[in-house]
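If your schedule permits, I should be very grateful for your opinion on a structural question. The matter concerns a single protein, recorded as an amino acid sequence and a row of backbone structure tokens. Could you please explain, in whatever detail you think fit, how the structure tokens follow from the sequence? I set the record out below, with my sincere thanks for your time.

——
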Amino acid sequence: MGRVRTATAAGDAGGPVAVAGPARPDTGDARAPRRLLLVTGGLGEGHHAAARAVEERAREVWPGVDVAWTDTLDEMGRGTAPAFRAIYAGCVRYLPQLYALYFWLLCRVRPFRAATRAVIGVWSARGLAAQLDRHRPDLVVATFPEGITGLARLRRQGRLDVPAVALVADPAPHPLWVDAGLDLHLVGTRAGAELLARYAPGARTRVTAPPVVRRFHPPEREHGRDRALVLVSCGSLAFGDVAGLCAAVLDAGADVLVSAGRDPDLRRRLDRLAARHPRGTALDVRTWIDDPAAATRECDIVVTNAGGATALEALACARPLLLVDPVPGHGRANAAILAAAGLARCCHGPAGLASAVRELADPARYAAAVAPLRARLAAVAGFTTDVAALARLRHPSAGTHPVRAQDAFFVAAETARVPQQVGAVIVLDAPDGGPPVDWPEHLAGLVRDRAGGIELLSRRMVPGSRPRWAPVAAPSPERHVRGDVVTLDPDGPYRSWDDAAGAFFGTAIDPGLGWELQAAHDPATGRCAVLARAHHALGDGLVITDALVALLTDEGGRAPAPVPIRRPGPGAPVPGARQGMRRVRAGAAVLCGLAHLAAMPPAGRSPLTGTLAGPAHRRIGLGLDGAEVRAAARAHGVGTTARVLAVLADAVVA
């Protein structure tokens, strides 16, 4: 099991521990999430820091919310987390050009990006699916790119039907951090939002305040020291020449606060620097900074080389940010966006850093650097507001179920020339006396009164790579009933019911609409007709006919109830080998059938082959007596449908 935490105290910044999921609390707000799942990853501390900020604000705005954590890397299998960390750190430290090439390919080469997403999505989705089944959250917020990729795969598979949000903690998102299938992306800069739209067209985005805990805030007043205090922080993995950066700051006449972390080699280098530098006593080396918020707030300048969590924390405290030789890939992308937005200054090498520190030692220049940072914080809505707004998210797939593959086939096979729809022309005798019937209004009334109780007519298709059926409590007559009446006229475009049907059925119906009605009238006979059509994905002709009978007549219909989608819950038994063999045999049968069809010769020329003149080609109807058709079918020893098809084929060939 991966690292999973269910925190019990607001502002808890401790590491995740394995605990059982508690009972669902009552928040008192019907819209507020009751269970929040945070999907993060232990590749540095920045992703955990962003998740802690979400948890802190969630507990403020949704009292009693149950917050659970899961680490994506731990859920990807034993040994995955240390392997990912070792590969990532090794590439950045020793093979920076290789890491830069990987990042470039990911951002610029679409096939490489798609392949990487596919591999990581398959790898991470399985563990995330287990955590979703375990915690059954109302809202998922992911701060880790690989976790976002896995959630996106689950969304496409129809296994994630609650709102899912990607929180992009870096100023510059990269392609694994975004997916249009998720419901919202929170990103810190407008330039980052533009990048996100390029990587995932159609993705919903919102520019947010820095995702940091409340302890990161500007000091009440500037410190006014004789010598500036500079915080040198290169992340939990301490990339780059940290000792060289500290020496440059000391050379510029400022004091230094730096953390050596858990790297003994870095600690030895810093200790040697303190011993030999003329201003070595101004170097404060900590094994670990227990309160990074206080340290950031109390310093005057922040120096880093990645532009990730440290940069966001510095901006939240309105501290001037100096980015020195950013690490390749995401570090350089972050630096470019922050510098272009006027939120940071990029420096090249120790000499460039020393020059920048000397400039900020001037009180006027320092005040000019701090003022826009404070103004920006005052202008943007707080991160609490951004988190509270997540309660209003409602994913369209909530309460939906997948469209069966055999029904979704008709959506994929549809073209403008070959609409995939079935329907009927129901001709009614003229009424005996009484006022004329307003047929569009009459049909609208039937839809209002009856369609909501007919399962086939009270659902709509949610498009996507895996389309789904979504329930519709009250189908709208304005959507499903055309307001005009087709009038037959010997001298007009509609001389017969067949002409009216040809126009009505001549264009493809939108699968999202599903079904449609229109009234037609023959003034010569006083007869009326209801033209009804439905997309073939809704069902076959018999099922749709039953639904139309239930809607339009008082006889009732036999529209079948939907087949429930049964999903195994936590602890459900895994299907055995016998069921697996059945699936293998079924798959083999399908493959054999496809191979047989592929090997068959093409059909010969006939009136049934060739290109149609257009979607509104002419339709010809023929009235047959039902009793006579059934009698003829029995006489030939075939079914009624086969007999009708034989008559149709004979008429077409003739």
The CA atoms of residues 280 and 576 lie 69 Å apart. The chain has 23 helices and 20 strands.
